[in-house]
Every structure is written in C-alpha cells, then in structure tokens.
Amino acid sequence: QKEVEQDPGPLSVPEGAIVSLNCTYSNSAFQYFMWYRQYSRKGPELLMYTYSSGNKEDGRFTAQVDKSSKYISLFIRDSQPSDSATYLCAFRSYNTDKLIFGTGTRLQVFP
Amino acid sequence: DTAVSQTPKYLVTQMGNDKSIKCEQNLGHDTMYWYKQDSKKFLKIMFSYNNKELIINETVPNRFSPKSPDKAHLNLHINSLELGDSAVYFCASSPTLGLAGAKLKTQYFGPGTRLLVL
Question: Of the candidates B71, B37, B79, which has an alpha carbon nearest to the alpha carbon of residue B55?
Fold first, then answer.
C-alpha cells in the first residue's frame, strides 16, 4: 500500500465552482498535514497546514483532516481561473523535517 | 529579492557528464533540502542539511553528492549522468524547529532546475 494516495486528475471545473481535492494516507505517525500549490514551471508554495482533525479555513480555502479515516481534503470555494495549478498534499511526522508528498492533482478552472 | 534561488534554470547535457546545480537562500533559514520531481510530478526528498550538517539522506545513488559550504547555500553535484536523472530538481529551505516542540517548519521552494539528460 502506498503511503499517500492522491488522484492525479486532471480536474476541470467552471469558474465559481466548489472544488474538492483529497488525499488518503496510511502512516499513523503523520502529525502535520499540508497542501501545496504548484503553478506550471514554478516551485510548490504552502497553501494550508493543520495538525489536528477538523476544519481550518483561510479565505476561499478550507483544509479538512480526518485522522480516524486517514483522509485529508482541500476545498476551494468560488474557484477562479487563477486557481488553475497542481495541488499537492504533504505530510510530516513529529520531530522530522521530511515531507512526504502526494502525486498532485492538476486543477483547471475555466472562465 | 528572491528567497530561494537556483542556477541554472535549465540544464541539457549528455549521458556520462558531471554537472552541478547551485542553491542559495536569503531567508536566514538553517535547513536546506534537495527534492526531485519526476515526469509524473511526484516530488521526493533527496537530502536535507541543517547548518551544513547532513540530516536526511534518502536512498539516492552515490553519484549524487550534496555540498553545503555555509548555511545559506546547498549545491548538488551529479556524476556520470544517466537518462533516468532527467527531472526537475527543487531546492527548499526552512527555519529551525521551535523550542516549544515540533512546530511547523514551512519549506520554501526555489523555482526548480530542469535537467534533461540526452
């Protein structure tokens, strides 16, 4: 079983749609849960992070973690063409620098 | 102004050659990393250095040798390049863990170096 599973997409949605991106993981040691956004030909940038089960909201973005199901989600409300990018989930265990990334989901928001 | 910079941006070379990629960060961070992103966009850590000391050394061929002359720089030297080394290589940096415990160490990525081995 892979440590992290993420649907590669592509996911194509109209502007204004609600987008749901998901990852599952198998490692119970993961304590920190992150979403990175990567625009084409750029480096990944941190979008959201959390370390507990539940929801965390930041503007149009909501990160959701369900530790019991080992499942994390990123919701994007009122999606914009500028949200078109690859979204990578990332995980880290306690007391280590090592990030484990999902394979990324490519999102395209069309006007 | 750039926080994490890498040179070169593009590198096209022949199999068997030796090449280096340079990385510099001006964020004052203590930890730096090298990642490899393959053609399927899978991003995997290769090495990390903290204050010039090797911390993470993943299962990477020993043709890859990182070198940290100071905490603001982490270079990657690759010997005897192979076709399978073609990828995008990202450098990243992050601050040291907080005293209160394992606080989030946000990793800031450079723009990447696109390596193509022919």
Answer: B71
Measured distance CA(A78)–CA(A1) in Å, rounded? 35
Looking at the complex, does the CB of residue B107 fall below 8 Å from at least one CB of chain A?
yes
Contacts of A47 in chain B (CB under 8 A): none
Q: Is B94 on the interface with A (CB under 8 A)?
A: yes
Cα B51 from Cα B30, distance rounded (Å) = 5
**Rounded to a whole number, what is the largest CA-CA distance in chain A?**
43
CB-based contacts of B16, cutoff 8 Å, min separation 6: B80, B81
Q: Using an 8 Å CB-CB cutoff, list chain A residues near B5.
A: none
Return d(Cα A7, Cα A15) in angstroms, integer.
Answer: 21
Are the CB atoms for A106 and A19 separated by under 8 Å? no
Q: pLDDT by residue (tens digit) across A25-54? A: 999 999 999 999 999 999 999 999 988 889
Would you state the pLDDT for residue B95?
85
Whether the predicted pLDDT of A23 surpasses 50:
yes
The model's pLDDT over B99-108, given as tens digits with 9 standing for 90+, comes to 444 456 788 9
Residue closest to A99 by CA, chosen among A23, A17, A39, A42: A23
| Cβ atoms within 10 Å of A58's Cβ, excluding its own | 10
Supply φ then ψ for residue B83, to 5 degrees. -55, -40
Q: Does B44 touch chain A (CB under 8 A)?
A: yes
